[in-house]
Amino acid sequence: MMLPKKGDPILVQNMTGRYGRLHTRLMLDYGTNVAAGAAPGKGGQSVEGVPVYNTVQEAVEKTGARASVCFVPAEFTLAAGEEALNAGVKLLVIITERVPIRDELRLVELAQKSGACIVGPNCPGLIIPSQKVKLGIMPAPSFSPGNVALFSRSGTLTYEIAGQLTGAGLGQSVAVGIGGDPINGSTPIEWMDFVQNMEDTNAVVAVGEIGGDAEERLARHIEKAGYSKPVVAYIAGRHAPKEKKMGHAGAIIYGNYGTADSKISALRGAGVKVAMTPMEVPLLVRESLR
Amino acid sequence: MRLFEYQAKDLFKQYGLPVPKSILVNDIDGIRGAFASLKPPVALKSQVLAGGRGKAGGIALVNDPTQAEREARRIFDLSIGGEKPNSLLLEEAYPHDKELYLSVTLDRGDRAFVTIAASAGGVDVESMAGKVIRRMSLDGIDSAFAIEVATMLKLPPIQVGPFVSILLSLERLAREKECELAEINPLAVGKDGFLMPLDAKVIVDDNALFRHPEFAKLHPEDEFEGEASRQGFAFVRLGGDIAVVGNGAGLVLSTLDLVGDSGGNPACFLDLGGGAQQERIEAALRLVNRLPGVDRILINIYGGITRTTDVAAGMNAVLAEGVMKPIYARVSGAEEEEARKLLAGSAVRMYSTAPEAVKAVVKGA
What we know:
Chain A is an alpha/beta fold. Chain A has helices at 18-30, 56-63, 74-86, 101-114, 155-167, 188-196, 214-225, 260-269, 280-289; strands at 10-13, 34-38, 46-47, 50-53, 67-70, 91-94, 117-119, 125-128, 133-136, 145-152, 172-177, 203-209, 231-236, 273-275. By secondary structure, chain B is an alpha+beta fold.
């Protein structure tokens, strides 16, 4: 996987929709080179001066964009994702919420085959402050350039924690919302491995929540392979009831599977410092960098 | 969306899976009649979605109509995980010597659907010994796959045929109806080697419901959950006295933790979603204000896509109606200063951090 650099051309799928328009403007304002839009039947239009093409293929050919931010509604996300991956998009950020599980699994399969990376669905996207690259919907003022990599299963919690880090003078090398669904296009382990090799990263913050076993797997991975940078985690949902979907499709405890306590103890067992509140995160990061 | 056992068994029948003869009864008056048309012994089963039904006393085996009525009365009145049944399933008991476990489920970590089978049924799948887990293609499985699972379970030859046919049907059901889970626990092994699903648990992928209108009318809705879902809020009732409202699932979850850690009892979880505008803020506040048991409201907003000025205007508008319970709010992020100006002199108790707002709302000061 290659993260986009300053000025790299970016594509927006369903650019002419309400959210596509709004966030095209906000991404441009941030300094990201949004170079093309794609929307079937809307070819020839433009949004904020950015040309819209009928197909992803055309947009890719005209602009060389290899990264796409997808705002296509859930019913059509599978088709839009397939279109992007088949047209040579290598980084596909899917903001869309409520995508069916089986559609997500199809996209994961296709991405693996075509050597692409999917971020999301049901996520705020990713941001690289030093490069002025924002592929998503996060509010820019919460983020600042720096050396902490942040990845999270929750949108606003990403903003909250990035805001706390920024307020404490701890900027971010990259911040990724991996998504709140049971299936993530790219997993915490993949991001962990990736940011370990990022030169401008000296600490990692992993934000999880109840549901599934991604955090337990991450803990086992760290224990087995070791990790060269300090890791701080925060897990939301210690007081959540069982068998109830807490806002995110993936945030649900079945029996004893997916509880916050299981995640926290697994991470602590692997030597990860776990914060009990978002406010504690910057303190633990500072402490581990000392 | 989790189905009730009787709904799951109706699906089983549609897919050619065997189920014991049963009758659904909605009130105590129907018990004797239903019992009379079944062959005793009969199992009375509480139709609730909560787990741990058997342990909680939600199932009884009865042999005569008087006993049936007595037990039915008890079960209708028995709350399991805060949930009382609207109906009981009366089902003919199936004599058997052995139980298996079988499910088709999403393995989140492996990002695939899997078959899980075990040669002993049981309460806790996690700890089942000799469990077989096999990854499946999204396009389905064939007989060879099912035979392999049967072989790995070391089933006697007489059970292999019935097992293969059950697994094939269960997989087809799970795939076509887009289930996160289709589970048979226990799968009883009769004396003749015949296999009979005794319980059925089906969870349908909520996000795929637009492709399955047949599930739209299945659930009796809680009044508040129904309204919240029509408004597009993520909402869960929790039973305490502090309504917790925020934007973003993770942020609201994290706020519940802060409230719980401070000794408070949340009444609900309400996620406004991204980009909520003034009318939606108002609708959410009116909804939680009417929720039984609520006597104060905590709002935690981190403005991004949601504009904090909309939140402030929404709070002012509902407060002007004069019936709102006290609102404790933390509003940060984009346009925070303007939002504070809008709220100057209003009855909203404003705090600059989430922990401060939580401390105050828990204390009720």
